[in-house]
Design brief:
93 residues, alpha+beta, 2 domains, two-stranded antiparallel ribbon, two-stranded antiparallel sheet, 49% helix
Amino acid sequence: MNRKEEMLNSVFSKSDFTLDEGEGLLREMQDVREELTKFGDFIQGITNQSREIIPLKQRKTNVVKPIHVTAICTYKQNNVSNALRSESARNAV
């Protein structure tokens, strides 16, 4: 983001340029705008995903009712085993 800001302040801040240079600068600015739009979409996606993360205090509390879980990896622990993407309801521990 800082690189793009520096680029806008240095490369695109010329006051005198030819028509060909202006067209080139315009194309470069459009490319920068597309990159910033993609970056904004990426940030928005991360922001939306962060809303699904349970706050740390709530993660420390005991579960009082069964919850629906989807395994993100295959694992075995004690008498519990799940395969990747399997779904089940887990009771409070």
